[in-house]
Design goal:
The chain is mainly beta and 236 residues long. It folds into 2 domains: 52 residues, no CATH class; 164 residues. Helices cover 0% and strands 43% of the residues. It contains no helices and 14 strands. Strands 5-14-13-12-9-10 form a 6-stranded antiparallel β-sheet, with no helix packed on it. A 4-stranded mixed β-sheet has the order 1-2-3-4, with no helix packed on it. Strand 6 and strand 7 form a beta hairpin. It is globular and about 60 Å long. The two termini are 32 Å apart.
């Protein structure tokens, strides 16, 4: 299709999130829409690079290609306050979704949690990962990490195994909890093979801030409500 004076006008709508499967029920893979913009997602053309059962809306952007020789893609998530579970078992903060590696990352308060309003007063803060879509065979995510802060610093290398039965279960990236304030840097890659956006073809730099326990960010309720958390993934 070619024209010197006409363009393509996709369907205009408002997506509720990057995993919205309600606004358009069971959207087919490759579906293109124009999202009019909301607080978590800026306006623009989006493509469902997930599946009808598990949509993943990715914003189409111009610029440099991401291939073996040049370019990269960055995904990010940031928020204030700890990611704690509600009374109905739902976590309030956004997950970081990385389609190329079939991977999701989050901070989450797990175990020993006591609530103060909408925030977790206590509990074990964890950096966790899981797969997005079910793999055909076992998948190993390899991680080399370093974190540093005013109290302590450390580094670690680990292999995390996911199977077709437990691919959607969150796994802790480290033995100890993240109940401290740190900057962190991770290098991750996967051995998973897929026909489209093959995870084995990509590597990832993961970095950001864990603000747990920063005394100047305790918030009005003294519950960590103003702590900064950020997750940024650079895929190349």
């Amino acid at each position: 299709m070619e024209s010197s004076n006409k363009g393509l006008l996709p369907t205009r709508l408002s997506l509720t999130s990057a995993t919205d499967g309600v606004t358009i029920p069971s959207p087919t893979t490759g579906l293109v829409v124009y999202h009019t913009g909301t607080a978590p997602m800026s306006a623009g053309i989006y493509v469902n690079i997930g599946t009808p059962a598990a949509p993943q809306w990715s914003k189409a952007t111009g610029g440099q290609d991401n291939n073996n020789n040049q370019g990269s893609t960055v995904y990010k998530s940031k928020y204030r306050g700890r990611n704690s579970m509600s009374s109905v078992g739902v976590y309030s903060k956004p997950d970081l979704v990385i389609p190329e590696l079939n991977l999701m990352v989050r901070f989450a308060i797990v175990g020993g949690s006591t609530a103060s309003g909408n925030n977790a007063l206590t509990g074990n803060n964890r950096l966790q990962i899981r797969l997005i879509n079910q793999p055909a065979t076992d998948v190993t995510i390899t991680s080399y990490s370093h974190w540093h802060g005013p109290v302590t610093h450390n580094s670690r290398g680990v292999n995390l195994l996911f199977t077709a039965a437990d691919f959607d279960q969150w796994q802790n990236t480290d033995i100890a909890s993240w109940n401290n304030q740190w900057g962190y840097y991770y290098l991750l890659y996967s051995n998973e093979v897929r026909a489209v956006k093959n995870p084995k073809d990509f590597a990832m730099n993961l970095y950001g801030i864990c603000g747990y326990g920063n005394p100047i960010a305790a918030g009005p309720g003294n519950d960590g409500g103003d702590e900064m958390y950020s997750l940024a993934a650079e895929i190349f």
